[in-house]
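Narrative of accomplishments. A recurring question from our advisory board has been how the design workflow behaves on a single, concrete structure rather than in aggregate. To address it, we present the structure tokens for one chain from the evaluation set, followed by the sequence designed for it. No filtering or post-editing was applied between the two.
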């Protein structure tokens, strides 16, 4: 073995060890989010779309006193038309105290929403279906992104039913 080969071997082993340690830290951080019972967020945006070209969006924003929850409904994708702007499609808005925020954070944890990060699936067998995208900004600075077209992660419809229930809407699957 040449004199420099042992240096290369030590460097390669060090890089591998560092990668394993980093992977373990990342895995622990993600599993802590999923298993701690609460998924503490600063902003959650769940956007649904369907074959009718109408959009339905739930926006939850943590405030100093609790939470602000908004529901937008319409087809604001046509931003050139002021009547169809997202702002004008605000259907319902309500506030909630810190107790409601804590309850919703715990429910996100129970539903395993942290495990949805990176979900990106499409069911090509459905012709006229719908889909969603989800973006969550976490208190710890992390993010959760998921999307699907006619495909949904586990417990998706339970989360959707919960959000609809915040406005007294009937649950739909």
């Amino acid at each position: 073995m040449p004199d420099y080969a042992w240096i290369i071997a030590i460097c390669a082993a060090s890089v591998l060890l560092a990668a394993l340690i980093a992977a373990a830290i990342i895995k622990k951080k993600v599993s802590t989010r999923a298993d701690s019972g609460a998924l503490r967020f600063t902003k959650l945006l769940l956007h649904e779309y369907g074959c009718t070209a109408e959009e339905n969006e739930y926006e939850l924003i943590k405030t100093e006193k609790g939470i602000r929850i908004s529901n937008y409904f319409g087809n604001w994708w046509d931003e050139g038309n002021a009547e169809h702007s997202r702002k004008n499609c605000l259907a319902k808005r309500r506030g909630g105290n810190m107790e409601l925020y804590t309850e919703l954070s715990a429910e996100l944890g129970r539903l395993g929403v942290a495990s949805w990060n990176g979900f990106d699936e499409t069911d090509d067998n459905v012709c006229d279906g719908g889909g969603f995208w989800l973006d969550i900004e976490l208190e710890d600075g992390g993010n959760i992104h998921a999307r699907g077209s006619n495909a949904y992660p586990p417990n998706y419809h339970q989360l959707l039913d919960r959000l609809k229930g915040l406005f007294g809407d009937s649950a739909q699957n």
